[in-house]
Amino acid sequence: MSSFLSNSSNQSKLQLATVALASAAVTAGAIYGYQQSRHGERLNRLKKSIPNPAGDAEPELQRVTRQGPVPKLDKEDEHNQALAHRAQNGDFDDELILEQLARNRVFLGDEGFAKLRNSFVVIVGCGGVGSHAATTLARSGVSKLRLIDFDQVTLSSLNRHAVATLADVGLPKVQCLQRRLIAITPWVRFDLRLQKFDGSAAPELLGAWEKDGQMPDFVIDAIDNIDSKVELLKYCYDNNLPVISSMGAGTKSDPTRIMVGDIGTSTDDGLSRATRRRLKLLGVTSGIPVVYSTEKMGEGKAALLPLPEEEFKKGDVGDLAALPDFRVRILPVLGTMPAVFGYTVANHVILKISGYPLDYIPQKARDKMYDGIQAFVQASEEKIIRAVTGGPRELCIGLKVPIQPCEVSFLVEDIYKAKSAVTGIATKLVLIRWQKPTRDILIRIGEGADEQKSSDLKLSELVCMTKEEATRHQKEVLLGEKTLEELYNAEIIERVAKRQEEIKLYEKYR
Length: 510
Fold this sequence. Notes:
Elements: H1 2-48, E1 62-64, H2 75-88, H3 94-100, H4 102-117, E2 120-124, H5 128-140, E3 144-148, H6 173-181, E4 189-193, H7 202-205, E5 218-221, H8 226-238, E6 243-246, E7 258-262, H9 270-281, E8 289-293, H10 309-312, H11 336-354, H12 367-389, H13 405-415, E9 429-433, E10 442-445, E11 452-455, E12 462-466, H14 467-478, H15 484-487, H16 490-507
Parallel strand pairs: 1-4, 2-3, 2-5, 3-4, 5-6, 6-8
Antiparallel strand pairs: 7-8, 9-12, 10-11
Keywords: ATP-binding, Ligase, Membrane, Mitochondrion, Mitochondrion outer membrane, Nucleotide-binding, Transmembrane, Transmembrane helix
Membrane topology: Multi-pass membrane protein
Domain THIF-type NAD/FAD binding fold: 103-360
């Protein structure tokens, strides 16, 4: 009898538990259904509230320095323009925005997410790299984007541009981005600048947002012209504007080799190397983060295509470019790589603005080495001047040499690859004159206490050696009677000659 009662009790408990669970599930489903219903109602109300585009003309949604050929709007464009106009005037349910950006909000935290939503980013260059960066930033919550580019969408752009379609061919790239992105993030405000970036326009193009005076939280360099790139980075460096630069995606194919690091650490990339060299000669040796590839070129891999001979015969090569000094070659670009560069750039900007932890690749700590090499050059010049003039030691008191640590870095790291030109050894490196001077190298300006003494020294006259090699070179060539041919073989002399010619190409940028 007791067993029967016990079984009945257990069955009752099981039934009650089952009913409770079923009730909880029904309640939860009802709550979820109600929330979804309210969400759908809000979204439908918003869409229905959009005025008919055929009515009053909507105000322009962006500033364009020079208006491009705007295609006729289709129904989708009209709908997107109207929605964006409403959203940018505050008539957009903020809960919908937060839901769209929910994954970023959870990842970055409320404080970091708020910083990102209130940020202003400038993107210079809206091609393959810049378009993917702009798209990612808009999707991630950045509220203000200034897009700067002089160029138009072409058919060849479509293999790598983030949002361009056939219908956008001929449309300025900045307008193409705005046209497509308002369909995704209608609340984002755009400031479109249809012009080429150059140093003279930097204060305006990199200046404050017009309506509220907010300065850029970050500048993205996605330019593929070295002169403009260097001007942009130098301006940002001098004016303490946070900037990140994308190096060359052309001829690259391995996404696992793409890295973020300081400009002083970037390697194996032609655009990075040329930019780094120019910046060093302007005194910028570090402090600018860059996205670059460590992929090495090899047999069977894509390379820069030479300009056909028939193009040269048409006249001045510069006349063939879209703008003066711009490239006239078609660069071999795998469509996936600019996207990876652009996403990496945008990722860096998002993390930096939001304050998310991020570390650079450790930078080469060689500042003391550069100072030591500069001191060695000065001591060597003093000895040469005294030997040539036969003057006393006091003759060279206060002597200055026209070479800076940034130029030492340029010669040692970029030209001589941190190796001796004589033996290839990479320890205890110094710079020293290659040939005995045949002219008076002591320059004296002023008299008495106001006299300035300096050595007439060009970068192309210096060569990188180990300290032991330089000591022998100084004793036997610069202060002695031996010729270069007596001390070095033809291979070494030819190697140094090639390096000197390379240096001369850059000396004009000092």
